[in-house]
User: Fold these one by one.
Assistant:
Number 1:
Amino acid sequence: MVTTEAPASPSALRSAWPALLIFAVLALVPVVAPLLGAGSYALTIVSRIMIFAIAAVSLDLILGYGGLVSFGHAAFIGLGAYAVGILADAGVGEGLVLLPAAMLAAAVFALLTGAISLKTRGVHFIMITLAFGQMAYFTMTSLSAYGGDDGLTLWAKPLVAGFKWLNDRSAFHYVVLALLIAAWGLCRAVTRSRFGRVLRGCRENEERMRALGYDPFAYRLAAYVIAGAIAGLAGALLAIQADFISPAYMSWQRSGELIVMVVLGGIGSLHGAIIGAAAFLLTEELLSGVTEHWRLIFGPLLILVVLFLRGGLGGLLGKIRHD
């Protein structure tokens, strides 16, 4: 069971300031963007950033704190998206049903595949998560009833308690922001709890944790399921925003992009995962307008960040405040 630490101390509040600053800036976007003449476009881009930030935060939970390099994390995003699409196709249009269903579908998949994957370590774990991710990908491409390779279209936005709030870009922006804060808060609570300390201990010295009476497999599996459920939520939101679900959501390339986001923001830094997602997607948006081979430019930039910013962009933000 996850037990959080005692009431927030001044040091805990200080460590949370980068995330609080990020959330404050994101909250101002719907107000400031129209003044700059970039209303709907800015809201679309920023909402997409927040959605992928939710997925990146979930990956950082198992990568940064558990040392689990998953190359199949995008499968959870795709399953969350398809859960929404399949239920919507069956006539379920209530968001308060669709979002939990997406999280449940991804959590069940994480539980089943994690129980097998976590029996392995290192490169073997990377390869088996990649294999499960590709299995999910090819399964969805073969389901012709739900579009196959062509994907699945959502013909209407889900309702929220019977209201069409998600049809409004600003309302959707704040819904996604609220869920991002909730995902960050949950992962922060997990990592700062005894559960999180045991998870980090298993990453550092598994044998010592066993000697202390802890079962590393159980803790890792629990973290893996939590991360899968949060990524499933991101997939559901991605489907709602785009009104479309594609098998490409769960491709291995998408999993690789999520790892890049975490590395770019700083591994083991939850607010860094948010910054990494923003940096990756904004760079993609800018460079793709210059050349379709934008990754050739982005690659060296990522290498420079890894070499000279050991804590990633998230660590750089902390250094700026300290200075």
Number 2:
Amino acid sequence: MRRFTLVSLCLGSTMALAGCLGGTTEEEVERAVAEVVAADEASLNDIMLSVADPNEAVTFFKRQLAEQPDRIDFQRGLAKSLVRAKLATEAISAWKAVVAHPEALPDDKIDLADALIRGGKWDDAEKVLDSVPPTVETYKRYRLEAMVADSNQEWDAADHFYETAVGLTTRPANVLNNWGYSKLSRGDFRDAEGLFVDAISYDRNLFTAKNNLVLARGAQRNYQLPVIEMSQIERAQLLYTAALSAVKQGDVAIGRGLLEDAISTHPQHFEQAVRSLRALDSETG
């Protein structure tokens, strides 16, 4: 049904265009029709890569490639759809095919490195990024460079790449959160706390950053929830995170109180917190 609708739309556009070009040559009409079809194809590709179900998009691009295997836009579409569908192994193979295409761009290598990281192949990702010309300075390139440096515990390089990535986007919340987590893993709790606060200031709905902020504060034995916007469910979950941090630090009585607060705050039954409180009581009872 979808395919019939698309064909109908294309034919309708073509007929309308041909009617408007009554005084032109056949060659000019054919060229104009080709441009309309190409525009319709591009629009459909965009839909498949944004709002369509990832698995449906994979099927769509595989079908397109079966008919036109050399089209790099279809190859990219398949590779991106496989990433969205969380099919890492297939995505890596698809991006390798794109990179090997004669019309490949440096950004395709960056996307290959992204797929390799998602597949846990950090060394391969580093090699691919090293092969990207230094003149290619994009947000995604530096975000991935930072992640690779993190994995190698090259902290100075990681900080440099994170800082550069932040400066290359108007929506830095996720990369600030990643940078904060990097600092948290190194034991730089105060710096981590500041980065999580910055991340939340750019995206107040980024719960991961809120949770990480509570972890950073808890590592400094500060279990009071930060003054940030949160829903009732988020508040209960953050109290639970603070409770676990307190117990981990040996502040068991504080942890028990925070667990009780989490259970009473949650609008539904908070099974995870209830189990943790029972386990804590059985160990200390």
